């Protein structure tokens, strides 16, 4: 579920880049139900998506976790097309045809390491152009195949969260509108042995990497490169970079509770927004006080000039 949930424009871009679902642009038009710390996966919103087959969709999306009569937890993700007069199609202006879709995906965890995914849906085409239909089918096939990559997206988001925590920056990139900056952590002292397997780095000591999560020096056998996606400062571009992580951090990230990570993300994001709101209120109070003081000073000067004028006239 952690890899399936995307509640903001930035989160959708990161998710689409990671799972390669064919979305080239998207926008959260309206939030109906926002996630909470108690239920960070529950989200209801109206979204617009543009796919690489020159077809866009406006849909009502909802994600969350439900419980069966046997108390089994089932994650769900539903997207169903909706129509609003305020959101007309762009076929005449941009040549983008508005399509209809209805997709439902369910996630059932069978074991601690196995999650079953069930997906069913349909896409409605109105065009008679055979080439456009072929391109649309290819885009739909890519979207169906992307469900298997949501696990990789979940792991990537956990690794990014660990990097932020270890570097002292806990601002979330899924729920916050401000772009966080990574503060560089000083690398750990270079040792002559791997921090995981204790193998020697060799005579020259060059056969090692630095884990971007724990900053320990490890050998090349005990680390692997993983794709990391973050939003660039322009808030539109997604940066893709491969970073080295040790096997210990990879295992810890894979086994960490996605629900707790999502809660920590949301809590830190809310704390950040509350701090920004408090600062804005303080600035507003200071501005009002300064304005009132300036107004009183001007009125005092005017009254003083009036008294001087009356005094001179009386004289």
From TrEMBL:
Keyword presence, Transmembrane: no
Domain of life: Eukaryota
Gene3D superfamilies from the UniProt entry: Zinc/RING finger domain, C3HC4 (zinc finger) (3.30.40.10)
Domain FYVE-type: 192-254
Cross-referenced InterPro entries: Rab4/Rab5_effector, Znf_FYVE-rel, Znf_RING/FYVE/PHD
Alphabetical keyword list: Metal-binding, Zinc, Zinc-finger
CDD domains: FYVE_like_SF
GO molecular function annotation: zinc ion binding
Keyword Cell wall biogenesis/degradation: no
Protein name as catalogued: FYVE-type domain-containing protein
Species this chain originates from: Phytophthora megakarya
